[in-house]
Amino acid sequence: MINKAAVRKPFLMKMWEHYPKLWKGLIDAGILLKYKTLDIRKLPDKVVMPSSNVLYVDAKENRGRALLISGGVTQKRLLSFWEDAVANLQPDIVIDIGVNYGECIFSVPYPKHAKIYGIEANRNLLTYIQKSRDAHPNSAQIKIIHAFASDKDGEEKEFFVDNHWSGTSSASYKPSHSMIDQVSVKAMTVDSLFKNDLKDKTVLFKIDVEGYEAFVLKGMKHLFEESRCVLGFIEFNSEYFGKSGVDVKEFFAYLNRYFTIYVYQDNDTLVKMKNLTIDDLYSMFDSRYVHTDLLLATNEELADSLV
Known about the structure:
Blueprint: H1 4-18, H2 20-35, E1 46-48, E2 54-56, H3 62-69, H4 76-89, E3 93-97, E4 115-120, H5 126-135, E5 142-146, E6 148-149, E7 156-162, E8 180-188, E9 202-207, H6 213-218, H7 221-226, E10 229-237, H8 238-243, H9 248-258, E11 260-264, E12 270-273, H10 278-285, E13 291-297, H11 300-306
Parallel strand pairs: 3-4, 3-9, 4-5, 6-8, 9-10
Antiparallel strand pairs: 1-2, 7-8, 10-13, 11-12, 11-13
């Protein structure tokens, strides 16, 4: 018998990658239903999020259009975590790696003492990100950096900008459709942002970089070792990791060295796992393909209070 759970998500991913016109049609239908027009000139260039913060988007690009349709919320799991984490952790340092339009970083207000960083490799999104930053109540505390977060500083990395859906732009793989621009972006480590100012600091971060998460995390080693408390949210997609050439066993060994790991199940419940392995995830999801999110916590007690 075919395990439907094992093939369902890869099939949808392939549909997205190989049939961009189909997905554009679905998004156009949503735009038409909400705004009664497909005329770009009549579509808004921003959306008000549930927090009342403003998110600027490109109404011509499909992920921007999806944010218009959804009221600025396409990742409910992430935003629910982020709101609770900011409120309870009151972080000193906030880092959003893979900003895209800023659905995460601009979703909530922050403590007045927080230093907030957003790192985005896709130059096409910077104008919208900067407008949203300027409209945010903590704008003076937010620094936006155009760079490719990695495990080395200063290298020029090849980056594939997906003009069909900006959220799948990546250095890990090149989507098979033709709406791709290949560009060069300077790499940086997150650790390079911080020198001697991590002692006693609490850190909140999110990473969503389409399979390149392992390299980003390697470039955060100093932050993990020197900060008082670190809490993070990362996407894990086994297919993307495979395309990026990551040794998944080594990746989980690295995570287990620093964190207690919490795994989101399909129903959004969290399972705490110590010494998590890829085989644990295969078993949990009954599939060799795993696409989920992980919470990473250096302070288990704090994380338990959030979940």
